[in-house]
Write a structure and sequence with these properties.
Elements: E1 2-3, E2 7-12, E3 15-20, H1 31-45, E4 52-57, E5 62-64, H2 69-72, H3 77-95, E6 101-105, E7 108-110, H4 112-119, E8 122-126, E9 130-132, H5 146-154, H6 156-165, E10 168-170, H7 171-176, E11 183-184, H8 189-201, H9 205-220, H10 223-236, H11 241-251
Parallel strand pairs: 3-4, 4-6, 5-7, 6-8, 7-9, 8-11
Antiparallel strand pairs: 1-2, 2-3, 9-10
Bound molecules: coenzyme A.
């Protein structure tokens, strides 16, 4: 287990679980927590033993209840830009992380917490999870990519309504709008997250990385550009041992033993 003050990293069965632990403040994100989160992801990126990441919040009540309002209340205009950029950079590093990242949301995912879940590649939630972007009620707007990623995930109409009302949605509604893919009892959240991540990481690690690259590249690209990029990665995979192993295993009716090469 690797620990910083508010972010713990635990590794088992080739999955790293990164836990934000600032329970007295509902795991709210102050600049230290955001920095530690970035460090945690960097440490896992360099660890060849880790194939996938689960991101969660400590305690029963919250994934992350947003950016720390105590810090935001003191912000100056230039300081506000800095706070926003720091969060955006760390969240973008999560979105472009070369290994799959799954948010396991148990409880409140509000403001920056909701934006953090949006930056992950996949999301599942416990029955008591609640999502929302309450920033406008504080006289600000989402500043960690929420005005960008929410619309991409749930569509413009729903995203605008969530952003303008600041309304919270429960886990079932979050599932029906595609914000999460699965809702599970609170005490099964991590177990179900590990099961889902287990189904992902049994696949070829290089293929997983390239699949993520291609899918996320397509978000910002023209169809022509995205297709060319997809073809290049598709072809490149023919150079990997993993492709040879995956196909040989199919022919030989056995499970593949991928090496990530
Ligand atoms: N920033 C700083 N502190 C926060 C926080 C945040 N985003 N969210 C919760 N906390 C703190 C509370 O101030 C309280 O601290 P205290 O015990 O020192 O007073 C503690 O966490 C527990 O929260 P509390 O409000 O007492 O719990 P609750 O169960 O009644 O309500 C929430 C939970 C999440 C609904 C409520 O805390 C809330 O609305 N938080 C702010 C959410 C938000 O607006 N986020 C976006 C920020 S941009």
């Amino acid at each position: 287990m690797t620990d910083t003050k508010h972010v713990h990293v635990e590794r088992s069965d080739r999955i790293a679980t990164i836990t934000i632990d600032r329970q007295k403040k509902m795991n709210a994100l102050n600049p230290d927590v955001v920095r530690e989160l970035g460090e945690a992801f960097r440490s896992v990126e360099d660890d060849a033993e880790v194939l996938g990441v689960i991101l969660t919040g400590a305690g029963e009540k919250a994934f992350v209840a947003g950016a720390d309002i105590g810090v935001l209340a003191q912000m100056t205009p230039t300081g506000g830009v800095e706070v926003s950029r720091q969060g955006q950079d760390v969240f973008r590093a999560i979105e472009t992380f070369p290994k799959p990242v799954l948010a396991a949301v148990g409880g409140y995912a509000l403001g920056g917490g909701c934006e953090l879940a949006l930056a992950c590649h996949m999301r599942i939630a416990s029955e008591n999870a609640r999502f929302g972007l309450p920033e406008v009620g504080l006289g600000i707007i989402p500043g960690y990519g929420g005005t960008i990623r929410m619309a991409r995930l749930v569509g413009l109409g729903r995203a605008v309504q969530l952003t303008l009302t600041g309304d919270m949605v429960g886990a079932e509604d979050a599932e029906s709008m595609g914000l999460v893919t699965q809702v599970v009892p609170r005490d099964e959240l991590l177990e179900q997250a590990r099961k889902l991540m287990g189904r992902v990481i049994k696949n070829g690690p290089v293929a997983l990385r390239m699949a993520l690259e291609s899918v996320y590249h397509a978000v910002d690209a023209t169809t022509e550009d995205a297709q060319r990029f997809e073809s290049s990665l598709f072809g490149l995979l023919a150079a990997t041992d993993d492709m040879k192993e995956g196909m040989a295993a199919f022919m030989e009716k056995r499970d593949p033993q991928f090496k990530g090469k």
